[in-house]
Amino acid sequence: MKILVLNGSPRPKGNTAALSAAFAEGATGAGHEVEVANVGRMKVGGCLGCEYCHKAGNGVCVQKDEMAELLPKLKEAEMVVFASPIHYWSFSGQLQAAISRFYAIGKPTAKKYAMLLSSGSPGVYDAPVSQYHSMVGYFGGEDLGVHCVPGDADEAALAKVRAFGAGL
């Protein structure tokens, strides 16, 4: 299975990066093709709502940024994993900008989805989990699970996420 992990963290060595890597390690070990796209460090602007993609662009966004590299990968992915730190009770702004740009293609063609969330505190996951479930329902996909890791992504947390990837 082709899996695209959208890592929304701007921190290349943070907890979300560690969770993304552990998931990728487990899934790759199980024979899946995994790519981690570090959208948190990419230049991706939010959707402008200009309708160019639908009226003149034939699914191509008018903005010329790094989302142009992600949209073809999103179309090919059989599974999409959203990975994000919690920034003030939500996905990172970087991941949210990328998600808003899905609009150019309508809905991803992936049939399976999952989410990895990290935060410094427990009890801050309700809003992004609700948004994730709404998105997966709209996309018509299968929810394979949400993994929330408050505090540091220690070896026990990484082992659970690695096992999740390996069990696909």
Spell out the CATH superfamily: Flavodoxin domain
**What is the count of helical runs?**
6
What structural category arises from helix and sheet content?
Answer: alpha/beta
* Gap from first CA to last CA: 9 Å
CATH class: Alpha Beta
Strand content: 15-25%
Kindly report the average pLDDT value.
Answer: 96
How many runs of DSSP E, i.e. beta strands?
A: 5
Q: Which percent bin holds the helix content?
A: 25-40%
CATH architecture: 3-Layer(aba) Sandwich
SSE layout and pairing:
Elements lengths: L1 E6 L7 H15 L3 E5 L14 H4 L11 H10 L2 E7 L7 H8 L11 E8 L6 H14 L2 E9 L4 H12 L2
Parallel strand pairs: 1-2, 1-3, 3-4, 4-5
Helix pairs in contact: 1-6
Task: Please give a structural write-up.
The protein has 168 residues and is an alpha/beta fold. It has one domain (21-123, 130-153): Rossmann fold (3-Layer(aba) Sandwich). It is built from 6 helices and 5 strands; from the N terminus they run E-H-E-H-H-E-H-E-H-E-H. Strands 2-1-3-4-5 form a 5-stranded parallel sheet, with helices on both faces. The radius of gyration is 15 Å and the shape is globular. The model has no long low-confidence stretch (mean pLDDT 96).
Search tags:
168 residues; alpha/beta; Rossmann fold; five-stranded parallel sheet; 6 helices
What is this entry, summarized?
With 168 residues, this protein is an alpha/beta fold. Helix content is 38%, strand content 21%.
